[in-house]
Amino acid sequence: MYAKYIKREVADLNGTGRTQACYKMELQSMNFQQFVDLCHREGRMDESQILGVLSLVSEKLALCMAEGFSVKLDGIGTFNAKLGVRSDMLPDAFEEGESNRNAKSIMVNGVSYRADKDLIRNTDRKCTLVRGGESRLKKSPFTLEERIQKARDFMKAHMFMKVPDYVQLTGLSRSTAAEELRKLASDSSTGITSRGQRSQKLYILRPEAVK
Question: Rounded to whole angstroms, how far apart are CA atoms 128 and 2?
Answer without folding.
Answer: 5
